[in-house]
Write a structure and sequence with these properties.
The N and C termini lie far apart (60 Å). The protein folds into 3 domains: 111 residues, 2-Layer Sandwich (Dna Ligase, domain 1), CATH 3.30.1490.20; 141 residues, 2-Layer Sandwich (D-amino Acid Aminotransferase, Chain A, domain 1); 110 residues, Phosphoribosylglycinamide synthetase, C-terminal domain (Glycinamide Ribonucleotide Synthetase, Chain A, domain 4, Alpha-Beta Complex), CATH 3.90.600. 25% of the residues lie in helices and 24% in strands. It is built from 10 helices and 17 strands. The strands form 5 sheets. A 5-stranded antiparallel beta sheet has the order 7-10-13-17-14. Strands 1-4-2-3 form a 4-stranded antiparallel beta sheet, sandwiched between helices. By secondary structure, the chain is an alpha+beta fold.
């Protein structure tokens, strides 16, 4: 099947290359790993890269689509083939729900052209993790592995979102496991893309599910992920601009040590402050208070995601409004999360919502009373 290119993947890298300019990022053909979920799954099948069992539907008769869907035991994962602003993945608890959601996708009602083809996947159980590589397609530099929190509510409940918080490094990604990811996923991906005439240069994000069958690829992104970047990049010890330039110009050979060092004790965490109702309907235009206080907190940064300037000051302008990040050189993840949540407690806007259990997979969630100064 042939997937159509998203209007959001219009080939800026190709345009730069045609004009003799340097740019960091993949070409339009290489970026198909993200802009077409169907291409990514079929690519992984061709190169024996571990991933969930899948089927692509959209061109078959209705009865055949129904039979394909029902061959997957619930819960069933449905993914719009094209880009859908981070909302194109739906986990359906039973076949009745899956049929309804799939019908909405294929009709174009849910995601327009992005949903005209849909990837049906088996549901993988395990912990999620994210691995980043900066690559010039031949060589690469690894960044700290991270763990995101996709669900909107504490305890990993609620709808999938673009991400409600993250931390790095993720202890679940041991040095041994990272080597397995390199050998079975990262290197075969780069080699496979090159062999198909799509050499991949840029940032390759690999979303993983750590299952009892080993690490499996959930998705590729062709960019730095959000909110993982807010915890991964603060831990980068080299010169980021030089590293990106070297990747863009094919000069990463011998530079692997410039990335993340597993022996580094530093940790970073990010908590996303979202608008009430996100990822569904939410209001914007609410004044944000407390940002000026964060300027005096060492190791804390407020990343603006959905904000704008107004006469009253900075106001909300999106679903995910702020990413409050903290980094600690020592003290471990518990200390970093304390710093992060103490900063969160200084910010307020109408209907502000955030998860209070970021990092719960590696330590007991901190109660709200512990997030505030005595």
């Amino acid at each position: 099947m042939r997937a159509g290119k998203s209007r959001h993947c219009s080939g800026i890298v190709d345009h730069f290359h045609k004009n003799g300019l340097v740019i960091f990022g993949p070409t339009q053909r290489a970026a198909a790993l993200e802009w077409s979920k169907a291409f990514a799954k079929e690519f992984m099948a061709r190169h024996n890269i571990p991933t969930a069992r899948y089927a692509v539907v959209g061109d078959q008769p209705g009865d055949e689509v129904r039979a394909i869907l029902e061959s997957f035991a619930p819960p069933v994962v449905l993914k719009a083939d094209g880009l859908a602003a981070g909302k194109g993945v739906v986990i359906c608890e039973n076949h009745a729900e899956a049929h309804a959601v799939l019908g909405q996708m294929l009709s174009g009602a849910s995601f327009g052209e992005a949903g005209r083809h849909v990837v049906i996947e088996e549901f993988l159980r395990g912990q999620e993790a994210s691995v980043f590589a900066i690559t010039d397609w031949k060589d690469y530099v690894l960044l700290a592995p991270a763990q995101d929190h996709k669900r909107a509510l504490d305890g990993d409940r609620g709808k999938n979102t673009g991400g409600m918080g993250a931390y790095a490094p993720a202890p679940v990604v041991t040095e041994e496991l990272l080597r397995v990811v390199e050998e079975t996923i990262l290197r075969p991906t780069l080699a496979g893309m090159a062999s198909e005439g799509r050499p991949y240069s840029g940032c390759l994000y690999i979303g993983l599910m750590l299952t009892d069958r080993g690490p499996q690829v959930v998705e590729y992104n062709c960019r730095f992920g959000d909110p993982e970047s807010q915890v991964v990049l603060p831990l980068f010890r080299g010169d980021l601009a030089t590293t990106l330039f070297n990747a863009a110009t094919g000069r990463l050979a011998g530079k692997a040590s410039l990335g993340w060092n597993p022996a580094d004790p530093a940790t970073a965490a990010c908590v996303v402050l979202a608008a009430g109702g996100y990822p569904d309907h939410y209001e914007t235009g609410h004044r944000i208070d407390g940002l000026e206080i964060l300027a005096g907190l060492e190791g804390v940064v407020a990343f603006h995601a959905g904000t704008r300037m107004a006469d009253s000051g900075i106001v909300t302008a999106g679903g995910r409004v702020l990413g409050i990040s903290a980094m600690s050189e020592t003290g471990g993840l518990a200390r970093t999360l304390q710093l992060c949540y103490r900063a969160v407690a200084r910010i307020s806007f109408k209907d502000m919502h955030y998860r209070r259990d970021i990092g719960h997979r590696v330590l007991t969630a901190l109660p709200l009373s512990d997030h505030r100064d005595p």
